[in-house]
């Protein structure tokens, strides 16, 4: 069945609640573990049905935020997702209180019960209205970002459509495009600050009502982090500061020299080669067709999977007016179908994002056999290993997409992967500051962000642009608004993905086997255990960052950058 044939019907929440409560009561009244396992099937079916509808509404709303019907459906979901969360929490309470817990755990594994305990801990009817408001504020941020209509080059562009101009070989074009994007963001500074201020105070209030001292603690539990804490993350951040920041400073100096500039400004950062940044050799349809060769080359499983995604219209790739910014992959349980949403803009990022989201989608599809939703995909930092590693595992086939630009792409992708990590860590440390100091003013938050930029991105020069000099850059990072404390997951996963890159260079078949096995485990284990099972070093282990960055440095030392000056 093609995505266009998927049917949406607004769920009857009152009826769902009644059926859910009946199913949970049957679970509670069961006289054996076997009876409880049977009762769980009804609960799972109800969960799959509602979540499929909610995700389908989100997909169609984000594809066209101006569609009145799905705008109303998204508002309905914002209102009712917390109600649904309460139903699931009631099931989780029954699960962790089961007199047959030991027998159930032997069937399902301990991770299900750890996650259930956290779900119980992080929800209460007392915060229901607050959760609804949190969803509404997050959606309000999306609306502001999607409202961008920027006059540039004789066209009306959104932020994604402006991106190719930011990468232009013409410095004045890069500068003008960057300033145009920031003019839009700056004009909405008060809106961004106001939305975020409300979110911070609201989330802090939710945490207090649930018995937490800060939202940070609640956020870690919301994220299902059963096996590490803020102290572990700090150890990782310190490794990044000590080992990766100096390397990134050196890489930026190389870039400045490579593109022949006396001064290196923020609008130069996305321009890497005087002969032009690497670009895929065709449009979105061409990229999809060529990617069929990429994934059939990688493995039989990925070849068949990508053909399925393309044939069943399970990807919406091109940027267009009214489409929400960003990219994501989600899963529709009732159709056992992943769905990929991105905003292609003609840059090399189109390929990177497609590979990234296919990594997510492949894992979701591979894990579709798990009977409980908790195991269909793991906690988010482990999810990002699948996506980021897919970017590296497909390296041998990038000539199918980039042709003569292949070496440029491989160099810029690898160095870009490393350069991203300090930024991702800065986003995380910023959020720790925000929620440890919930009464900080918007200007104090911006000041802190600028301080962190100087620590983790010491090369960055905003050319006197007031909005950015005063710490406004973080406004464009949607995760800060919508998914607090998620962003560190990308950096943890990046270190793991770089380990897959290293291992693929040593033994590509073994690297693929380990990756595929990791995907098959879904969310049945916590992050650090999945890392261990995949034969990777935990990012929280001292020496992990140095071990992989050392390999990157060796690679960079072998690259003759003069080749990139040739057309």
Question: What are the defining features of this structure?
Answer:
globular, single chain, mainly alpha, three-stranded mixed sheet, 567 residues, hydrolase, 5 strands, protease, two-stranded antiparallel ribbon
Structural account:
The protein has 567 residues and is mainly alpha-helical. The protein contains 24 helices and five strands. It has helices spanning 13-29, 33-63, 68-96, 101-108, 110-121, 128-146, 159-166, 171-187, 189-209, 215-222, 230-258, 284-298, 300-311, 349-366, 380-393, 399-402, 406-436, 442-456, 466-469, 478-482, 488-506, 508-520, 527-533, 544-558, and strands spanning 150-152, 155-157, 315-318, 328-332, 337-344. Strands 3-5-4 form a three-stranded mixed beta sheet, sandwiched between helices. A two-stranded antiparallel sheet has the order 1-2. A hairpin with a 2-residue loop joins strand 1 and strand 2. The mean pLDDT is 95.
